[in-house]
Amino acid sequence: MRALSSLRWKIALTTTMVCCMVALALGILVHNVVARQMVGEVRKAAATELDHALGHYEYGTAHGDVNAVFDPPDLPRRLRELVASGQTGSIVGVQGGKPVMWAAGPADGKALAVWLPFGSTRERLRDIDTAILASAILAAGLVALAGLFLADRISRRLATTAAVARRITAGDLDARVNFPHEGDDAGPRGSRDEVRDVAHALDSMASSLQGRLEAEKRFTADVAHELRTPLTGSLAAAALLPEGRPKEMINNRLRALHLLTEDLLEISRLDSGVERADLARVELGRAVERAVAAAAGGSGAAPEGEPAASVRVVQDMVVVTDRRRLDRILANLLVNAGKHGRPPVEVTVEGPVVVVRDHGPGYPPELIEQGPQRFRTGDPGRGRGHGLGLTIVMGQAAVLEIAVGFANAPDGGAVTTLRLPVGRVPPGD
Question: Which residue intervals define the domain HAMP in the entry (predicted)?
Fold first, then answer.
């Protein structure tokens, strides 16, 4: 909003500055034209008076003009020099401390000069300049208001589009801008509206993305459901095989495939949004210790004979969460540390924050930047996996409103931070 508000003021200030520049140019042009015309009229009248005075002087008659004198002391030097060269001319100057228009010509080696009052003309020019300035200020104010109104309208529409884009980024794929289409009430038919075009492109992108994600969710759920029944039958049939290495290998592969199918089913349930948390008050330190102990048997979080992870409770805290889902999150993190990291694996509880850390090569940069993505594990050299474990962590954390952060420790190792919400009240309280 701050950037959009800045855009609004930038547009308003730009239009105002352009209006001021245009008004200044027009004001200077009008001032020059009017001043040239008004001064020209006074200069013409002074020249007529000078011709009249020179004519009377030439014929030796009294000119009768009290404003005609020889070599007046107030005659401007430039005009005096012009007359000395045998020419006539006129110039604005002063006479008796008042502005006048001087006109002078040569008469027997002297300067015969006449003058007309110029004060009223100068006042009229000042009045015209004041009117031009007032008109420019009024026009600039009106243009500024109009620019601010139009810029506010544009910025509001951009703010709406940005808010919808943020909602889509947060996962609300039903969010739409829904500006009127071309030819509707938004403007004249055939008019171009770039903001509306951007909004429509965003709506189209969201619809396309939503369709593809829905298709992916349906495909994941269908595959998991279709695999579940034959896998159950295969596990039952494998149990009838004679004991030996072949039976053990078949059972291991079938169990791995069964776990993958269960993960796909869990992801499809999380994607559908039907998952609800069974909230209760939980002592976080003890819950984490029990979850880590339960995950130690066969979780793959540590080599056989070594503890899955060490738990250190810096500060215990009672939180409102779903213990089963929290156990699932911790179990997946421990399994991921066992597959892709190296011991020791450390789990630290400090208030509502749980940190799981291993001492392996750490998370791939793309996982830290973009988050976990299903069926993508980054560098194959970091270990095998299908990318569903951390995806389930994110899904379950979203149900519990747990903030999850992925990072790498400065001295090596992947660090996962769980920040549980505080102040939440369980149902029934």
Answer: 152-214
Nearest to 332 by CA among 228, 262, 408, 276: 262
Which range of 306-315, 348-357, 415-424 scores highest in mean pLDDT? It is 348-357
Distance CA 251, CA 244 (A): 11
pTM for the full model?
A: 0.49
Q: Give the separation between CA 366 and CA 373, rounded to whole angstroms.
A: 10
Q: Residue 347: beta bridge partners?
A: 311, 356
Residue that is written with structure tokens 């309280």 in the block: 429
Question: How far is 13 from 147, CA to CA, in rounded Å?
Answer: 8
Residue 55 forms beta bridges with which residues? none
The DSSP result for 150-192, as a single string, is HHHHHHHHHHHHHHHHHHHHTT-TT----PPPTTSTTSSTT--
372 phi, psi to nearest 5 deg: -65, 145
Quote the strand ranges of 96-171, DSSP E: 98-107, 110-117
Tens digits of residue pLDDT in 62-119: 555 557 888 888 889 998 889 889 899 999 988 888 899 999 999 888 888 998 998 8
Instruction: Give the residue from 404, 416, 400 showing the smallest Cα distance to 319.
Output: 400
Q: What torsion, rounded to 10 degrees, do the Cα atoms 292, 406, 383, 345 define? A: -30
CA 332/CA 84 separation, integer angstroms: 108
Q: Which domains does the chain have, with CATH numbers?
A: 2-142 (no CATH), 210-272 (1.10.287.130), 280-419 (3.30.565.10)
Distance CA 341, CA 333 (A): 11
According to the model, what pLDDT value does residue 304 have?
Answer: 43
Give per-residue pLDDT as tens, 184-231: 444 444 456 777 888 888 888 888 887 877 777 677 666 666 676 776
Bridge partners (DSSP) of residue 283 are 318
CA 61 to chain centre: 87
